[in-house]
Amino acid sequence: MNEKPTILFVDDEERIVRSLRLLFRDTYNVLTTTIGQDALHIVNSQTVHVIVSDQRMPNMTGVELLRKVKVKSPKTMRILLTGYSDKEAVIGSINDGEIFRYINKPWNTEDIRSTIAKAAEIAINSEDEFEVTVNSRKIILVLDEDPDVASFVQELVSHEFGDIYSVEWATSFESAVDILSRGNVAVVVTELSLTGDDVEVFITSLKHHAPSIVTIVTSAHHDTNVLVTLINEGQIYRFLPKPLRHGMLAMALNGAFRRYRAINSRPALLNRHVAEEPRYAHKDASLTGRIMGLFRNINRSHITSTP
């Protein structure tokens, strides 16, 4: 890079932004503010490659700020920094801010350096998204043991999107991977847990093996630690609470289709949604081995076939 990337840090505590400025000033053009509205003025007036915002600030939360930045400057990579295990903030960061990473305070210096370096690199090299025409019928894979959920998604897709997409239902990892192996899956709508099985490893594995597929997660229960992992290691597109509502799911699917088309027309856009390398050490070894074995048996070209 000929010029230093610009990083904007936003936190209502002056000592925090001062520490971050000192940590990054030799590597980047560092801007700081303690006021969300001022951050928006900065983004409006100049190129900001990465914004790192605290969540709990007066007048404007970090999620609200990042949502507005996404509209004003879609190329700016967005990172949420917080010292609280805030369920609403985590969900909002997925659905509203579409953030790149979620970083906990106190941060690990090496981790925050590498995360910002990756975000800055992506922002410098990013391309604009644009719409393309889908030339073949794509599949929406529903992974859920509840037949009513599959029926709900099927009826909604038929009503809202016609015959452009078909819906296939799976109730297990094995049946889901079988559908994936046939190709043409654009979107996965998955429950967070199956009987005795944790879907977290499945989702992060899917992102690793089939990065162009867009994932929507649904659940009646919200574990903030799991959601943070799914942001950082799975880059999930949306989280929708159950019971599912027609309007919310329709909007989520419409956005997911647009992202899928954009990614498949310009593969370089995948860099904006790259996930951290999955870390499975904390998961059940037999489950992890089983899922990884399923994915290893799939030819990646079949999963990521383009429109």
* Succession of helices and strands: EHEHEHEHEHEHEHEEEHEHEHHH
Q: In angstroms, what is the radius of gyration?
A: 19 Å
How many beta strands in the DSSP annotation?
12
CATH class of the largest domain: Alpha Beta
Into which percent range does the helicity of residues fall? 40-55%
Q: Which sequence of strands runs across the widest sheet?
A: 2-1-3-4-5
Low-confidence stretches: 130-134
Q: What composes the largest sheet?
A: 5 strands, parallel
Number of helices: 12
**Oligomeric state of this protein:** single chain
| Class from secondary-structure proportions | alpha/beta
CATH fourth-tier homologous superfamily of the largest domain: Response regulator
CATH-defined fold name of the largest domain: Rossmann fold
Mean pLDDT: 85
- Gap between N and C termini: 33 Å
How does CATH name the architecture of the largest domain? 3-Layer(aba) Sandwich
* Overall 3D shape: globular
Indicate how many domains the architecture comprises.
Answer: 2
Q: Beta-strand level of the residues, as a percent range? A: 15-25%
Q: Quick recap of the structure?
A:
With 307 residues, the chain is an alpha/beta fold.
Characterise this structure.
With 307 residues, the protein is of the alpha/beta class. It has 2 domains: 120 residues, 3-Layer(aba) Sandwich (Rossmann fold); 166 residues, Rossmann fold (3-Layer(aba) Sandwich), CATH 3.40.50.2300. Helices cover 45% and strands 19% of the residues. α9 links the parallel β11 and β12. α4 runs parallel beside α9 and α8 runs parallel beside α11. The longest helix has 20 residues. The protein is globular, with a radius of gyration of 19 Å.
